[in-house]
Amino acid sequence: MSHFDDLAPCPLAVKGCEALRAIGWLERGRPYAHGDVDERFFESLVQLLVHPWQPAAAAGRHSCSLCKFIGGPGQITYKDTTITLGSANVFVPGNGVIYVAPSLLVHYVDAHDYQPPSEFVEAVLRCPPMRSMEYLRQLKAIGGTALVNARKGM
Ligand SMILES: [Zn+2]
């Protein structure tokens, strides 16, 4: 899996969408922010990952390089909600940017003490329901038209 610094322009960018910012692309041996997170944030993140909107087909399974042997879990269950980890990314509209994080983000937060930037935490907490009209409207408004349209070609 690729490593990007938090808030760096994300080279996964769909052509024509410069607004993407990387969150949580962790890799063993690279420093990352540690600390507590509000459980409401974790719960919101899990909900966004139940059926995350994707602009393009998934590029195969990512594994967790911070886990020593097993590459992290393929799914987790939190409060009766089970989500699949490792292949999808989650796109979260922010203030003029669109955050893109690997689904393993929830595992990094839960198991590896990762603390995402506060601006991302706030964006997750106010993110409209995944796949709602409002969610897609916000992505487009921020410059994600290319991102949204890329999906139509799939
Ligand atoms: Zn891990």
3D architecture notes:
This protein is α+β, with helices and mostly antiparallel strands. The chain has one domain (20-29, 42-152). The protein has four helices and five strands; from the N terminus they run E-H-E-E-E-E-H-H-H. The protein has a three-stranded mixed beta sheet with strand order 1-5-4, sandwiched between helices. A two-stranded antiparallel ribbon has the order 2-3. The model has no long low-confidence stretch (mean pLDDT 90). Bound molecules: zinc ion (ZN). Zinc ion (ZN) binds at residues 64, 66-67, 72, 107, 111-112.
Summary keywords:
154 residues; three-stranded mixed sheet; 4 helices; 29% helix; 14% strand; binds zinc ion
Shape: globular
Total domains: 1
Number of strands: 5
Q: What fraction of the residues are assigned to beta strands by DSSP?
A: 5-15%
Through-space gap between termini: 23 Å
Bound molecules: zinc ion
**Main beta sheet:** 3 strands, mixed
Q: Unreliable stretches, pLDDT < 50, 5 or more residues?
A: none
Query: Helix share of residues?
Result: 25-40%
Radius of gyration: 14 Å
The succession of helices and strands, N to C, reads EHEEEEHHH
Class inferred from helices and paired strands: alpha+beta
How confident is the prediction overall: mean pLDDT? 90
